[in-house]
Specification:
By secondary structure, the chain is α+β, with helices and mostly antiparallel strands. Helix content is 23%, strand content 24%. The chain has a domain of 165 residues: ph1033 like fold, CATH 3.10.590.10. Keywords: Nucleus, Phosphoprotein.
Length: 242
């Protein structure tokens, strides 16, 4: 019996304004039933000092050279609270991942073409933030790594699964999944509100989170991160929450 599907949040529709170049013209984007996180007011104060301190440390490490913008890390959204979808509970928290054999599972049920293409771009050993979504306080709770690259998502062929796709064929599957393994919890919970405060400040001063997809393409359950975005968020572990 397959594990419950995890990775998406309720209520969001696919964004068709920026179709992915790899999507066949005959395909229609399927809603990625993920809730756009409700905007929360950022905490008082500015992140500029934190960004400048982080930048100074990074420049010291790299000799001041700026890295090329490439996506080599990821953010994976999952729902930590029970919610039924076609009679199946899609809850899957980081504790559920830790309880799996070898703390490893497949990341199934993605039904948005851009998110699927991000899955297919993942490479063995790359790390991702595990993000609790569609809950009272969304945010980053841990780190996982890719332990198996993209392969066909079996739930697309299972008529009993809430993510069954009658239009997908086994000889040419539409949907993919990867295997992920728990690495560690983050040193503290990093809430969406705190990340948003840095994002807003970085939009003004050119910091690494200025174009973070968590705020520019909120509805995607699979999101790429640049090395700068990933490293900056990791640096927040050491800061006391506001």
């Amino acid at each position: 019996m397959p594990w419950p599907s995890r990775k998406r949040d309720k209520g969001a529709a696919a964004d068709k304004k920026e179709p992915d170049a790899k999507i066949a013209k005959t395909e229609e984007e399927t809603p990625d039933k993920e809730e756009e996180e409700k905007s929360t007011k950022p905490p008082a104060g500015s992140s500029k000092s934190g960004w400048k301190n982080w930048k100074k440390a990074k420049e010291s490490d790299s000799g001041g050279e700026e890295s090329k913008i490439t996506y080599c890390h990821w953010l994976l959204k999952s729902e930590p609270e029970s919610r039924l979808e076609k009679g199946v509970d899609v809850k899957f928290s980081i504790d559920d991942l830790k309880a799996q054999p070898n703390q490893t599972t497949f990341w199934d049920g993605v039904r948005n073409y851009q998110a699927r293409n991000f899955l297919r771009a993942m490479k063995l050993g790359q790390q991702a933030f595990f993000y609790h979504s569609n809950c009272k306080e969304p945010g980053i709770v841990g780190i996982v790594k890719i332990v198996k690259e993209a392969y066909p998502d079996h739930t697309q062929f299972d008529q009993k699964d809430p993510h069954y796709d009658s239009t997908s064929r086994k000889e040419n599957p539409k949907w993919s999944m990867v295997d992920v393994q728990f690495v560690r919890m983050t040193k503290r919970f990093i809430p969406l509100s705190e990340i948003k405060a840095h994002h807003l400040a970085h939009k003004a001063d050119g910091g690494p989170l200025k174009n973070m997809m968590l705020f520019t393409r909120q509805r995607l359950s699979i999101q790429p991160l640049t090395a700068e975005e990933f490293d900056f968020i990791l640096s927040l572990e050491e800061e006391k929450p506001h």
